[in-house]
Amino acid sequence: MDNNTEEFYKRLQDELDKDTSWPSEYLFKFIVPSSLESVAIIEASFDGQDAVILTKESSTGKFTSVSIRVVMTSPQHVVDKYVEFSCIEGILSL
């Protein structure tokens, strides 16, 4: 992970820690190239967490938006999820 990415995640963690009482519900939003594998990786990561996961394919079928509403235990847990998904080629975190 490069310095800019580390700084981004540190700022995110600090903001979440400052602005939110934990545990708290958090909304993750991603756009991934449409592939069952990419969506399955994200969905599997939230198995057993009572997450509400919504997916919607773009009108062209090239991309899929994935929204996950789930209770997270801490800002570090949120950052860990973003880092976990960074291995998915072409993912955009919103």
Care to describe what's here?
The protein is of the alpha+beta class. It contains 3 helices and 4 strands; from the N terminus they run H-E-H-E-E-H-E. Strand 2 (52-57) and strand 3 form a beta hairpin. Helix 1 runs antiparallel to helix 3. 11% of the residues are buried.
Category from helices, strands and their pairing: alpha+beta
Indicate the percent of residues in helices.
40-55%
Q: What fraction of the residues are assigned to beta strands by DSSP?
A: 25-35%
Radius of gyration over alpha carbons?
Answer: 14 Å
Poorly predicted ranges (pLDDT <50, ≥5 residues)?
A: none
The helix/strand order is HEHEEHE
Strand order of the largest sheet: 2-3-1-4
Distance between the termini: 19 Å
Strand tally is 4
Shape: globular
Task: Average the pLDDT over all residues and give the rounded result.
Answer: 95
Which sheet architecture does the biggest sheet show?
Answer: 4 strands, antiparallel
Task: Determine the number of helices (DSSP H or I, runs of at least 4 residues).
Answer: 3
Which key terms come to mind for this protein?
alpha+beta; 40% helix; 94 residues
In short:
The chain is α+β, with helices and mostly antiparallel strands and 94 residues long. The chain is built from 3 helices and 4 strands; from the N terminus they run αβαββαβ.
Give the secondary structure arrangement, pairings included.
Layout: H1 3-19, E1 24-33, H2 36-45, E2 52-57, E3 63-72, H3 75-85, E4 92-93
Antiparallel strand pairs: 1-3, 1-4, 2-3
